[in-house]
Known about the structure:
6-stranded antiparallel beta sheet; 8 strands
Amino acid sequence: SSMVRMGSPRGQTMDDPILTIEEREAINSGRWFSSLSPSLRHDILRCAFVKRYKDGDLLAARGDPPEHWIACAKGALRVSSTAVSGKQVTLTYVEPGIWFGDVAIFDGDRRTHDAYAHGDTTILCVAKADFRKILAVHTELYEAMLRLHARRIRQLFGLVEDLNTLPLRSRL
Length: 172
C-alpha cells in the first residue's frame, strides 16, 4: 500500500494516489480522527491508500467480505439497502471526515449495505491486515473505536425512539 502524500488539485486524475490539500484537511479535521494521538493518526495515514469514484459508482456491495476500513475525504457515500419491492432505500450519507466499515472488520461478517458515490467521491482505505496491525501497536485505538461505536449506538437509539414516538403519518 502506498503512502498518503499531500498533492495539488491541479492535474488530479481519477487514479491519482495523492490526497488534495482539501481532502487531507477533511480527514484531519474530522471530529473523531482529530481526537486521536499524532502518532496514531500518522500510522493510519501511513498505510492508507486513496480511491476515487464518479457519482453513482458502487464502492461496496451488501454481502462483500470486509477488506478495508474507509474514510470519506471528498463527496459522500450513500449507504442504502434494497426493499423487498426492489426500491432502493437510502439509510444515510457518509460525509467527509467520517470513518466507517470497522464493524464488519471487527465481527468478520460480510457488509450489510450497499455504498455508492454521491457526487465525485474520494475515499481513504486501510486494509484489514493493516487495521489489525495498528490496533496491536496502538491500544489507544480500541478506546477510540469504543467512543465511535458508543456515539453510533446513541444515534441509533435516537432514531428508534423517534420511530416509536412519532405519529404514524410522520413515519410514513
